[in-house]
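Pasting as-is:
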Amino acid sequence: GGVGKTTLVARVYMDQMVISHFSCCAWITVSKSNTVDDLLKKILKELHRERKEQITLDFDSMDYRTLVENLRLHLAHRRYLIILDDVWQADVWTDISYALYANNCRSRVVITTRVQDVSSLAGEERIVRVNPLPDEMAWDLFCKKAFPREEGNICPQNLTQWARKMMDKCDGLPLAL
């Protein structure tokens, strides 16, 4: 982790021009411990919250089948964007995809993951790989963050050797820099 997958997707998700193309959106952070039922509940709650709709149903008491029915009903005829952030297990997508209504409205589901088995489910042509920064860009970012008060964010000469060693340990990962 740390190459900026979540940050990149968040910038797109927060862009009003992007969001204006969808009638409903949901951002779900998936943890290793979430069950499929938990994720479906999170998606339903987020879709209602995002649309400022009052939740009149008790999602917490619903079983898998009822959750799927409610989600499919909610998404029918709507162009939706759902972000599943930090997915660790391939079966999460397999189990949830059934509930996400294929309504021919050009809806989108974006998954961020560091697990090859998860990303391969999307098909090779749909995978966007985010790589660590090249050395020069990593150095520029490091200096910008480490030396914000220096003119031009330039590393002071007496710290260059130490700063380069620190930057190298970050392996080009923007979040580490």
